[in-house]
Amino acid sequence: MNYERKVESMDSLAGSAQEFYEEADDRRKRKRLIIAVVLIVLVLAAAWYGFSSTKGGDPAAGDGAAASTPTVTVMIPGMQSVQAAISANGTIAARREMPVGVAGEGGQVVRVLVEPGQWVGAGQTLAIIDRSVQAQQAESLAASIRVAQADADLAEAELKRAEALVSRGFISKADMDRKRATRDAAQARVRVAQAQYREAVARNSRLNIVAPAAGLVLTREVEPGQIVGAGSGVLFRMAKGGEMEMLAQLAEADLQRVSVGTRATVTPVGTDLKIEGQIWQESPVINPETRQGTVRIALPYSAALRPGGFADARLVSGTGQAPLLPESAVQSGPEGNFVLIVDKNNQVQRRPVKVGTVTDGGVSIASGLTGNERVVVLAGAFLNPGDKVKPVVQKSSQ
Length: 398
What we know:
Layout: H1 2-55, H2 59-68, E1 71-75, E2 80-94, E3 97-100, E4 107-112, E5 119-120, E6 125-129, H3 132-166, H4 173-205, E7 209-210, E8 215-220, E9 227-228, E10 236-240, E11 244-251, H5 252-255, E12 263-268, E13 275-282, E14 292-299, E15 310-322, E16 324-325, E17 331-333, E18 336-342, E19 348-352, E20 354-359, E21 362-367, E22 374-376, E23 390-394
Helix pairs in contact: 3-4
InterPro entries: Beta-barrel_RND_2 (IPR058792), HH_YbhG-like (IPR059052), MdtA-like_C (IPR058627), RND_pump_MFP (IPR006143)
GO molecular function, one term: efflux transmembrane transporter activity
Keywords: Coiled coil, Membrane, Transmembrane, Transmembrane helix
């Protein structure tokens, strides 16, 4: 009996403890629920207060919104007169290159009188060839003229004496005919000797290497002591009158935009010179591999123009009206060139464009803009389409 009472008392104690813990847990849940409700009410109250303050035009809130909107510089480019230019590159060459070699029979070079880079006149001697043997041959022919002339004078005197005697009957007409023939043959030998002498003199005058025309010596391929002849090839190269040209390579489409007389500005590589010239000849064919053709640009002499050198050219093919932007306003991406414009809602928009001529004044836009848009000039790389901005208009440079 006592055992049963102990068990019942223990069960009642356990039940009381369980009820205690359940009541404590309920109190904690109610407390957390009350705290959560209070927090939610506070958040809603703060949100309502912020919304009502903004709606009511709170100056502090307005200043914060304005401060978060970036300010960007924009310009309205309009339409400007832009030269339609074509860029090209190519090599420098003599406009009329004259290869000079041996014109006569040749021989041993005694002296070379010029160096590359010197100016020479027409007929000026460039190199002297030994003519000691040829000079003796010419002297011999000159002596043969004197011998033949003496024979001719003797035959003429004999003919005159015979003519005085023929009237007296001392000389027959047959003898007269022979004396006339002798006189004529002697005079013919004089003429033959004279022709041979002049031929020798002409050959000797062609021994020296001379300039065929006035111009600039470009190369020299001969030295004293060298034996030269008809097979020696080119010994000097000259630029006639010192005139140069640029052989510019143009794309097939660009060839249609230029013609003979088109102005060009040539800049040799490594210099800042701008040498004015013009196209004087167009290539009648197109290279089927490169799809390019050659135009020849006539240039005046300049020490910076060296045949074989490389140069850049800018060909002016006309003028037109187009928007002109600074280079900072034009960006490029995988799809091509583009600019950022600010629309009427002051939001950034991306506009694809086609770039035209690049000049010192900026980049002309061939298509994509009308000139009335507000184009972002600076900080375009930090903006994205759809961004809200505060534009500040900059005057376009004219």
